[in-house]
Design goal:
eight-stranded mixed β-sheet; single chain; 16 helices; seven-stranded mixed β-sheet
Length: 560
C-alpha cells in the first residue's frame, strides 16, 4: 500500500454535500460569475476551480433532518427558487404544542413564538439537497460523491488539503484486489461543512485549539421515521411538537409529528446529557409512537424510512473558532443550530453563503491566511443568522435542572434577549452527566426488559436499520475505533452497564454471551451504523472514536 497517491489540485474545496457546503459552493460560483461580468478583460477570476467531496454514495444519502425549512436563506441564495421547482413539500398550515403524560395530553392554549412556523415548509432534506446538488453541478462545480475525507493535510499550521480514504482494504488492514489509494485533494482554502461532530472538523479543532476558551458543545439525538399514509389522507401541513412523555422531567427533549401530504414525518429528540445509564432513545421513540395522540395518526399508515442523527445544541458560546489559515468551519460543523426553534437548515445555508463571500475576497487578494478568513465570523455576527443564534445562546443550558426550570428559563431568555438569569449559563459535556448504575439506580440494578415491538407501529432496532437503507462493505476495517478495549470489556459493564448498547439507535453495540459460556461480552456490529455519531459523543469514558468508513458506505436516506 505504498503506491503514490493521486493529487488533485483545486482552488476551493468544500467538504460535505449538506445544505451548508452546497449553498456555499453555489453562492461562490455565482459571485465569481458576477465579478467577472463587471471586471475588465484580464482582471477577472476566469479559471477558479471549485470542488466538493461527499462521503455518501450520492448527494443526500447521509442527509437527515425533521424538517421544517425557514426559506429566508433560500430566498437570498435562489430568489426564483419556486420557478426552479424547489422541492418544498407542504406549506405549514397550523402548529400545536402538547404536554403528554403516559395516557393523556394537554394542548397548550398558545404556541410559543419560536415554534410558530407560519410561512415555512415541510421538506425532505435529502430531496432538497439533491436538488441543490444539481444546481451546483450545473454551475460548473466538480462534485465527487463516495469520497470520504479521512485526514486533513497541513503545511505547518496551515491547512492545504484533504486526503480521502483508501478503498478496498479488508478488516485485517490488508489490500484486496480492488484496492484503490485515496486521493490528496489540495486547495488554497478548505471549507468544512461535514455535519455534526465531523471527523475532519474535530481534527482541526484538536490540532489548532479552536475550542480554547469556548463552552463545551452539548448534543441531542434525533430518531426519526417517515410513514406513508393511505391514499384518502389529506395533505394538511399539520405540525405537532410535544413535551413530557416518554421522557422524564430531568431529561431534555421532545417529540414531533409533521403531516407532509401523503407522508408523516415523526421523531423524538433526546438531549445527550441525561443521567440514566439505561436510557435508550430508540426505545423511548417506540413508546412515543404508542401514545394515543401519535398512534391515532398512524392508523392505516406504513413505515417507509428510518434514520437517526445527532444535533449540536450548545449554541453561541460553544461554537469553535471558525477560521484558521487555509480553512473555515460552517453549518453543523460550526455548531449553528437554533435549538429553541428546532431549526438549523437556514442557518447552515447562510453560513455557507457568508463563507463564500469571505472566500471570494481571499481569491481576489490571493491571501488565504487567518487574517483574511477572519472576515467570516464578523459577517456571521452581523447577519440575521448571527443575531438569531445570539438570542438563544443559553437555551439548552437552561434545562440543566430539568423541564420545569428549563421552561421558566426559556421564558426569561425570550424576555431578556437571550440572557436569562445569568449570562453565560454554566455548561458541561453531556457524557460527564451520566451517572454509574449504583449511583443512579442502586447496586445490582438491571435494565428493564426489552420493549416487545409489535411490527406494526413499534419496531426493534434491526428492523429500523433495514428501513434506513444502510449498507457497508462487510470486509473492511471497523470505523468505530476503541482506544482501550479493556474499558469496554471490563470496567464499563460494571460501572455503567455498557450504555452504548442503549444509546446507539442502530444495534451497533450488542452485549452477547461469550463463546465459552462464561459471562457476556460486548460485540460491535459496524455494518449497522447509521452515522449518527452518538457513540463518539455519549461514551462516558470517551474511548470510542467514529471515523468515516469506506466512501459510499452508510445509510441511504431517500425521503428523510
Amino acid at each position: 500500500m505504498s503506491e503514490p497517491r493521486e493529487r488533485l489540485e483545486v482552488d476551493v474545496l468544500f467538504v460535505g454535500a449538506g445544505p451548508a457546503c452546497l449553498s456555499g459552493a453555489l453562492h461562490l460560483a455565482n459571485l465569481i460569475q458576477a465579478h467577472n461580468r463587471k471586471s475588465l478583460p484580464g482582471k477577472g477570476l476566469e479559471s477558479v476551480s471549485i470542488a466538493l467531496i461527499e462521503k455518501g454514495r450520492e448527494v443526500g444519502a447521509h442527509t437527515l433532518s425533521g424538517a421544517i425549512l425557514d426559506p429566508i436563506a433560500l430566498a437570498e441564495l435562489i430568489p426564483d427558487y419556486r420557478e426552479r421547482n424547489a422541492p418544498l413539500g407542504t406549506a405549514v398550515s397550523g402548529d400545536s404544542v402538547y404536554y403528554l403524560t403516559e395516557g393523556s395530553r394537554f394542548r397548550l392554549p398558545w404556541v410559543p413564538p419560536p415554534l410558530n412556523n407560519h410561512g415555512n415548509s415541510l421538506i425532505s432534506l435529502s430531496r432538497f439537497v439533491r436538488w441543490l446538488g444539481e444546481l451546483v453541478e450545473a454551475r460548473g462545480v466538480d462534485l465527487f460523491a463516495g469520497f470520504a475525507g479521512t485526514e486533513l493535510l497541513f503545511e505547518g499550521e496551515r491547512l492545504v488539503g484533504v486526503r480521502t480514504g483508501d478503498k478496498g482494504i479488508d478488516r485485517e488492514n490488508r489490500p484486496r484486489p480492488s484496492w484503490e489509494p485515496g486521493v490528496d485533494v489540495l486547495a488554497k482554502v478548505v471549507v468544512l461543512g461535514e455535519g455534526v461532530h465531523g471527523s475532519l472538523a474535530g481534527q482541526a479543532v484538536k490540532r489548532l485549539g479552536l475550542d480554547r476558551g469556548k463552552a463545551p458543545q452539548v448534543y441531542a439525538l434525533g430518531v426519526k421515521e417517515v410513514w406513508e399514509l393511505p391514499e384518502e389522507s389529506p395533505g394538511t401541513g399539520e405540525v405537532i411538537h410535544t413535551l413530557g412523555y416518554p421522557l422524564r422531567q430531568e431529561e431534555f427533549g421532545g417529540g414531533f409529528l409533521y403531516h407532509m401530504g401523503r407522508t408523516l414525518s415523526l421523531g423524538l429528540v433526546v438531549g445527550l446529557d441525561y443521567k440514566d445509564p439505561f436510557l435508550d432513545p430508540h426505545r423511548q421513540f417506540q413508546r412515543f409512537k404508542s401514545h394515543p395522540l401519535i398512534a391515532s395518526r398512524l392508523a392505516g399508515a406504513r413505515l417507509a424510512a428510518y434514520g437517526a442523527k445527532a444535533l449540536p445544541e450548545g449554541g453561541h458560546y460553544a461554537m469553535p473558532r471558525s477560521y484558521f489559515d487555509g480553512g473555515l468551519l460552517i453549518g453543523d460543523s460550526a455548531g449553528l443550530v437554533n435549538s429553541m426553534r428546532l431549526k438549523g437548515i437556514h442557518l447552515a445555508m447562510k453560513s455557507g453563503m457568508l463563507a463564500a463571500e469571505t472566500v471570494l475576497e481571499a481569491l481576489l487578494k490571493d491571501d488565504f491566511s487567518e487574517g483574511t478568513l477572519s472576515r467570516y465570523p464578523r459577517l456571521l455576527a452581523r447577519s440575521w443568522a448571527g443575531r438569531e443564534l445570539y438570542r438563544v445562546r443559553n437555551f439548552h443550558q437552561g434545562f440543566e435542572r430539568g423541564l420545569v426550570w428549563g421552561l421558566l428559563q426559556a421564558g426569561l431568555q425570550m424576555a431578556t434577549g437571550g440572557r436569562g438569569w445569568k449570562d453565560p449559563l454554566p455548561s458541561r459535556p453531556g457524557h460527564r452527566r451520566m451517572r454509574p448504575i449504583a449511583a443512579y439506580h442502586g447496586a445490582g440494578a438491571v435494565p428493564s426488559s426489552p420493549l416487545q415491538a409489535d411490527g406494526k407501529t413499534t419496531f426493534d432496532k434491526l428492523t429500523n436499520v433495514y428501513y434506513s437503507g444502510t449498507r457497508h462493505e462487510e470486509d473492511q476495517p471497523s470505523h468505530l475505533r476503541i482506544s482501550d478495549p479493556r474499558i469496554c470489556q471490563e470496567r464499563c459493564p460494571q460501572e455503567f452497564g455498557s450504555p452504548c448498547q442503549h444509546f446507539c439507535p442502530a444495534n451497533v453495540y450488542e452485549v452477547v454471551p461469550r463463546e465459552d459460556g462464561k459471562g457476556r461480552r460486548l460485540q460491535i456490529n459496524p455494518s449497522n451504523c447509521v452515522h449518527c455519531k452518538t457513540c463518539d459523543i455519549m461514551d462516558p469514558y470517551q474511548v470510542i472514536t467514529w471515523v468515516p468508513p469506506e466512501g459510499g458506505g452508510g445509510p441511504n436516506y431517500v425521503n428523510l
